[in-house]
Amino acid sequence: MQVAAPLVSHDERAASGLLLPLGVVLIGVTLIPIAYSFWTSLYALNLRRPRLVPFVGLDNYGAVLSSPAFIAAVARTASFTVMAVTAVSVIALLVALLLNQEFPGRRVLSACLLIPWAIPSVANGLMWKWIYDANYGALNGLLLQLGVIQHGMIWLGDPSRTLPLIANAFVWKEVPLAAILLLVNLKAIPADLHAAARVDGAPAWQRFRHVTLPALRPGFTLVAVYEAMVAVRHFDLFFLLTEGGPGNVSDVVAWRVYVETFRNLNFGLGAAMAYILALATLLMSYGFIRALAQRV
Amino acid sequence: MSEPVRLAPPTLPRLLRGAGLAVASLVLLLYVLGPVCWLLSSSLQTEREIVSIPPHWIPEAPTLRNFEAIVATGLGRPLPTAGPDPASGGFIPSTAANLLPAMLNSLVVAVSIVALNLLVAVPAAYALAKIRFRGRQAALYGILATRVVPDIALVVPFFLVIRKLGLLDTLFSLIVTYLAVTVPFSVFILTSFFEQLPDDLDKAARVDGCSRVQVLLRVFLPLARPALVAVGLFAFLSSWNEFLLALMFTQTAASQTLPIIVASFTSDFTVSFSFLNAAGVLAVVPPVVLAVLFERHIVSGLTAGAVKG
To answer: Cα–Cα 20 to 30 A to B71, which of A114, A270, B226, B277?
Structure first.
């Protein structure tokens, strides 16, 4: 014991040696860029006039936060996030409840479930763009054959449908991960809780409502915060499906940062926006990270 | 609701349950596989068939022409001559030749990312799991917190630095940035895995005179094989699937990865729909095959953080 104890206790030198490569990567490729990003956000850096870079302090932030276009983009991002997170949570719950049952074919089903999760977001975007296609797409084809609609719809071109349809593509890809996380939570519910409720004569629905749902709280929290983080910053589908349009109905914050930075070449303004987005996600996920870090 | 069920003979509820499960499974299967099957079916249709209304769910005259064109042009050969369908050849863009090189770029980056992830994350995770040092908790918070920063916030400074170093349009710029983006999750999964291994293993080997590095290599690594597989897969998939950073840093076929080339077709209205879907299939197949083959590893890796390790 006297020999072993110091071996596992404080050993800063060994730890720092083993952590060094990770430290180099994270400091060099994350922390310094973040600092540099803040520095950039204080200048009116526009690559169209690279010689003239006046220091403007927090003016970029003021300009972003007082711009009606940015505020509108924030509102769109929020509405996309709420739609996406709600749908992911509900569908993932149904999937998890199904996969929590024992039946032949369950393993094949859970293997297939991973397919949307594994698909690159670019392929996902391409696939849904083709499904929504106004002329030859599968959605129009299916609904016409079923007699639900009488003529083809221009799905993504309809401003009232654009965000929900993009959210649908997002949800399809995100459901598997959320379902897996909820399933772990379901399996961890002690069986005697259900047994006790059954002895008390509680019908299935009541057992679900009063035993299962409350016990799923940690799983739902994890899913909701994680999916909200992913949805708020989501870019790929907006790029592939609509490029912010039609008009500006799908002009969300991540898309705004891209346009401001790489199309208008306003690097200072873009950096300020990106910083605001980063701070917002950091605040949103503070509790999430605390919970995760305490588990290890 | 439960009363009639309880009074019925025992086979009826079992039958109902079976039917319910079958219907639910079928619905889920359709939801998950429907869109992918449509992608695959479209990639196999001829130019004439793909624009039929209503759409043909199953191709009547399936053809591999798109895939042949991708391989042929990728190897520098001319487009195979169009067969009885005169329209098909013209809709295959000349940039089809970029798909195979882009796949190779994606592969090089992804394999490098897997190797570097393991090299960086394994020692770090061992230190975080088995050595008590001051600031351990803070280090964990810090590592996880870096993943909260959206990639789009890193893009601006990355771009400016990479441009200054003259590294725009190189695979190196992708490898460096992807490493920073993937490594925190790898560290997290491996740390929770090492945590589960008993401390006594560490102590016993240390008493026998092993150095920290020897303990890690000889005792922990062999035990950690499933976690290493999971981490390698996640790193591979995130790298293979990444779009935003590659969109900013790559400019020519020298460094463009598969998602960039595929995305470039979606905005080109002259490209055939069936060719577009074939390019999509090309991007989808490797990750889907890996995911289905290694389902167990992936699920246990994904849930490593969800359950109390």
So the answer is: A114
- pLDDT bracket for residue B81 (50, 70, 90): low
Q: What is the 3-state secondary structure (H, E, C) of chain B?
A: CHHHHHHCCCHHHHHHHHHHHHHHHHHHHHHHHHHHHHHHHHHCCCHHHHCCCCCCCCCCCCCCHHHHHHHHHHCCCCCCCCCCCCCCHHHCCHHHHHHHHHHHHHHHHHHHHHHHHHHHHHHHHHHHHHCCCCCHHHHHHHHHHCCCCCHHHHHHHHHHHHHHCCCCCCHHHHHHHHHHHHHHHHHHHHHHHHHHCCHHHHHHHHHCCCCHHHHHHHHHHHHCHHHHHHHHHHHHHHHHHCCHHHHHHCCCCCCCCHHHHHHHHHCCCCCCHHHHHHHHHHHHHHHHHHHHHCHHHHHHHHCCCCCCC
Which candidate from B2, B207, B277 shows the least CB-CB separation from A203?
A: B2
In-domain check, residue A18: no
Chain B interface disruption, residue of A126, A234, A253, most B CBs within 10 A:
A126
User: How does pLDDT run across B159-193, given as a tens digit for each residue?
Assistant: 888 888 888 999 999 999 999 999 999 998 999 88
Task: Identify all chain A residues contacting B288, using CB atoms and an 8 Å cutoff.
Answer: 115, 118-119
Residues in chain A, total: 296
Its ipTM equals 0.88
- List the single range of A11-15, A74-78, B45-49, B125-129 with lowest mean pLDDT: A11-15
B241 and A33 within 8 Å at the Cβ level: the answer is no
Domain interval for residue A265: 39-295
Taking residues B39-48, what's their average pLDDT?
A: 91
- Locate the chain B residue with the closest alpha carbon to A138: B55
Domain assignment present for A283: yes
Mean pLDDT over B40-44 rounds to 95
The residue in chain A having the minimum alpha-carbon distance to the alpha carbon of residue B22 is A103
Contact: A180, B241; criterion CB under 8 Å? no
**Chain B partners within 8 Å of A113 (Cβ):** 28, 32
The reply to whether A12 falls in a domain is no
CB A112 within 8 A of CB B301: no
- The verdict on residue A2 lying in a domain is no
Nearest CB among A94, A123, A239 relative to B262 is that of: A123
* Residues B193/B128, Cβ–Cβ less than 8 Å: no
The domains of chain B, with CATH numbers, are: 2-92 (no CATH), 96-302 (1.10.3720.10)
Rounded Cα–Cα distance for residues A194 and A208 (Å): 9
Structural domain tally of chain A? 1
User: Are A117 and B291 a contacting pair at CB < 8 A?
Assistant: yes
Sign of CA dihedral B163, B167, B173, B176: negative
pLDDT at A8: 47
Least CB-CB distance to A184: which of B50, B132, B303? Answer: B303
